[in-house]
Structures are given as structure tokens and as C-alpha cells.
Amino acid sequence: MGMNDDNGMSTHAREMSHDAGATALMQVVDSGLLRCGVPPRLGGDGGLDHLIAGAAELARHHPAAAWLLWAQRMTIEALLLSPNIALRDHWLVDLLCGERAATLSPWLEPLRARDTGRGWLLRGEITAVPNLQWAGFSLAAPVHLGEQRGQWVLLRSEENGLSTVPGTVAHWPAAQAAALAIDNVFFREDEWLGGPELPARLAPLATALACCLPHPTDWNRTTSPALSPTRLATT
């Protein structure tokens, strides 16, 4: 899946947007900030102090790239905290080196799920999601799985039923942000990321990266003065 083609952009404009997003993600990777705070045995290099200082610097000079840093690094942290070791081992290396884009739902409103007896079908919409790279991405999102409330899953953009909502692409092309529609996306148990404790465990990193957010989210209800609020098209 890529960014939806029905957003009123010419083919050339879409290509420019996709290139800008990929370039911004590589800028984040090259900064080394994705590896800061990650255990060395898992590919980390540098501490959280370096991450905080580097994020603030990136937010001042390249706000769109800072938004991608938030998305990629928060998802990496969710994998590091996940009890699903197989999921972490499958994706972590690709996320750290930028081979795979990743993003975390900016909102804690859970997706809806229907039990089919062989798995779950997920439905919902998530607004203002950054780092939706054309080449593919992984999405960490909350969901209620029957009686199991507040669960978190990691979905692949290649799944049938996961698409961007036309007319919602952000004004910052490099941020590759839009609303996501989840329409009967099949969830497998091996994509389970964590339980209801995950947001609290992610909160320290969310606070450290608050300067990267261009607008209030459920992770940070105050707008950073270092960034100008982004606007999403409503048509």
C-alpha cells in the first residue's frame, strides 16, 4: 500500500512528495537518533540525553523530519518493550536502519475488532498519522479484542483494507502524514504488540520527544512552541 492517489495531486507532485518523505526518513536515520536509548546488544548507540538534545535540534531546523523521528522511534520503543520477542526480532533491525518505516497511532482511541473464529477483523480510522512512506510501513495501534481491552497490534501497510483517506494528506510533504482507514484488516496473533500497560511504559519517551510533535495528540496534549501547527486538508 502507498499513499492514496485520490488526493488531488498530479503524478509529478505525488512523486515529489514521496521522494521528500523518503529523504526525510533517511535524514533521521543518518542522525543516529533512532539508536539512542536502544540497548547496545540490540543495535543501540548513545543515551537518552543525546536523543533528547538531538530531537530538539531536529525540531528547530527540520520539523517534518522531527515528526518522522517521533513516529519511528516511538514504534521502536514499543517493540523494545513488547513481550512478543519474535515480533521484535522480525522488525527491529529494519526499523533502526530505515529499511522499514514505522508509525504509532497519535491517538489512544482503540480500533474495533470482530472475532471470526480464525482471527480478528479490525475497523476504524486514525487521523494525522505521520511516516506513511510509499514503500511501505508498519503501524502500531490500540484495539479492543473482545474482553481483552486496550491491546496493541502492529499492522503492515500491505494488508488488504488498510489505506489512506483521500483529501487528508498533510501540508508538509516530507512528513508523509494522512488519515488511515482500517476496513476489515485481518489481525494475526503473531502481530500482537502488547497490552494496556504499553502507553504508560511509553510515556517517558513520549515526554522526551514531545518537541517533535507539530500538534496536540493523546501522547502530548500541549503544542510545542518550537513547531508551527500543521494543518490537514479537510476536503
Please outline the helices and strands:
Elements: H1 11-31, H2 48-61, H3 63-81, H4 85-96, E1 101-104, E2 112-115, E3 120-129, E4 137-145, E5 148-156, E6 162-164, E7 178-187, E8 192-194, H5 198-208
Parallel strand pairs: 1-4
Antiparallel strand pairs: 2-3, 3-7, 4-5, 5-8, 6-7
Helix pairs in contact: 1-3, 2-3, 3-4, 3-5
Concise summary:
This protein has five helices and eight strands, in the order H-H-H-H-E-E-E-E-E-E-E-E-H.
Protein described:
The protein has 235 residues and is α+β, with helices and mostly antiparallel strands. The protein has a single domain (11-212), classed as Butyryl-CoA Dehydrogenase, subunit A, domain 2 (Beta Barrel). It has 5 helices and 8 strands; from the N terminus they run ααααββββββββα. The chain has helices at residues 11-31, 48-61, 63-81, 85-96, 198-208; strands at residues 101-104, 112-115, 120-129, 137-145, 148-156, 162-164, 178-187, 192-194. The longest helix has 21 residues, at 11-31. It starts with 10 loop residues before the first helix and ends in a 27-residue tail after the last helix.
Mean pLDDT over all positions: 88
Structural class: alpha+beta
**CATH class type:** Mainly Beta
Bin the helical content: 25-40%
Strand percentage:
15-25%
In this structure, how is the largest beta sheet organized? 4 strands, mixed
Tell me which oligomeric state these chains represent. single chain
Q: How many whole angstroms does the radius of gyration measure?
A: 17 Å
Q: At CATH's second level, what is the architecture?
A: Beta Barrel
